[in-house]
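chain below, 544 aa
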Amino acid sequence: MILILFSTIFLLPVLSGLGKIMEKFFGILFQGISGKILSGIMGVSLTWTVFSFFIPLNIYVEVTTVLLGLLYFFKERLYLEFYRFPKKDLFLTVFISFIIVFTGSYYPYILDHFGYYVPTIQWLTEYGLIKGISNLDLTLGQMSIWHIFQAGFSNFSDPFLRINSILLVIYTLYILERKSWIQLCFIPILLLFSQSPSPDLPVIIFSLIILNEVISGNRNISILFAFSGFVFAIKPTMIWLPILVFLYNFFIFKSDFKKLLFGGLILLLFFIKNIWTFGYPVFPISIGDFGFIWKPNPEVLKTSSQYAILKTYDMQYSYEEIQSFSTWEHIKNWFFLKGIKSKINSLFILSLFVFSVFAWMKKKKLITLICISLLIKSILVLAFSAQYRFFIDVFFVIFFVLFHEYSDKRKSIAVFSVFSLLFISLLTFPTLIQQYIPSFQLGHFMAGFKKEQLYQPSFYEYHQFDSFKVGNLKFNVSKNYPYNFETPLPAISESFIFDDAKAGIFPQPIDKNNIAKGFIWKRMTYKEKKEAETVINKIENIHK
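prediction:
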């Protein structure tokens, strides 16, 4: 906890200074400390994304960036803005920040932390963006820009990967500066994302900030669209946000396309990054085939697509059963899944219906545009993979639009305090959620409170692994554990080894002497099939 606090105190001036540089070139997102910090986050994330094509995001990159941020922080006398922060809100800021850094010190429990977030950050800090990395481990093909941002500060500024906790403190500064009190009500829920560098948290926070700016009449369309494109680049399921700002630009301000240029360049960078790591413009969809040799094997993509369909129905039906569903059964079975997810699905559709009726009754152009944007996003999610984690942001947006006019400081602080206590209790005593909501599977991976976390955030160590060789690829696999968060690179998850072997292929380095050159897949020879069988047999025997 104390170390997260130190990281926060250290990085806020750095990001503020970097944001000042960003404002000189691209304009002001909005006035205030939080505006500069958010501009700094976007600026350094995009800059590091470009750098990571060529170099790893190691300590040299971090030191240079930190020094540059601190230089501008003092050169532009930005510390005076911190000094001028309203003293009447100081106690509230400290109170909320204390809760955030305390909650962020718990053990990470989101499974993607171990199978996706940490391995991605390892690759970025040791090698940068790797061409065709999805051939080694399909999940790594995402390489979210948020993990690029986390990786760049993971060498010494934030070695425990609690950048989400720091972002929540920044979000608190924004709420207090802009007096958007209803957003205090969201922080307790977002505390559940503070232990890992989950991209879900930044996209929810950034989308609510941009939404508030749009509703408040912010006219800086160029930077608003750029930031919405940045949010989309972090997680493409946030497509509603750039759509909203696009519609806001043409139907409210009737501006031309020039104001969309910066955001368009960000989207172009996103597509190039995905093509480099995945072979296609948008992960994990195999649309836009440019014929690159490092694109994933079609059979592996097919398996991934089938798994996404299984996840849509919470693994409660086999793929063959789902394929045999009629249109009505597809809808009915999605609504009536066993456990909490059926409730979330029903609430999602109900919320969309209520919001659509609300927009129709209000007959306000902006609310109508918000509704259209959310409906477009929802239709796309339902068409591809209707998992609740892909539409959870919709609940925040609808709640914000419906109730932001009726909230005040006192009520919002009361809601924040009560629900913060509730969620801290769940993290501290996870048996409560395991007992009362057993279908919430993540609850079974919460580890509770440890007194050591008051100083240092809790984290797991697992250095057991086996080394293998198939063809020209030497790789490591975590021993008796499905994920590779502590395994030396190059590492492959067990599940992808099985998928590759089933497809009769295996990843190989483009240059056997330098894995930084990237990976392709190739059909296995008879000898390589035997090597792969040996790997699979050893993995299976360990599990037995």
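The chain has a mean pLDDT of 91. DSSP finds 23 helices and four strands in the chain.
thats it, cya
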